[in-house]
Specification:
This protein has 79 residues and is an all-alpha fold. It has 3 helices and no strands. The model is unreliable at 1-5 (pLDDT under 50).
Length: 79
């Protein structure tokens, strides 16, 4: 993975359907940068792949669960 501090490209949120099915860890430089800044290098090396997997899993399951709950309650998503 490239150093998140070296990338200056903005996130194109329009590519994603309601924030679903993407890995926020891979997308968001701030999410990557902050743990790399505060954790010792060895701890961050251990945590980085786990944080990536967690982000991917959450963006797939949480967004779908939230949408299902919203639809079940009859709430409108504004679309």
């Amino acid at each position: 993975m490239s150093d998140p501090q070296e990338r200056n490209d903005p996130i194109d949120y329009g590519r994603f359907e309601e924030g679903r099915h993407c890995n926020y860890w891979d997308l968001d430089r701030t999410v990557q940068r902050e743990p790399s800044r505060v954790y010792p290098e060895e701890a961050f090396e251990w945590a980085e792949p786990r944080l990536s997997r967690l982000s991917s899993r959450e963006s797939h399951s949480s967004s779908d669960s939230a949408m299902s709950a919203s639809e079940a309650s009859g709430c409108s998503t504004g679309s």
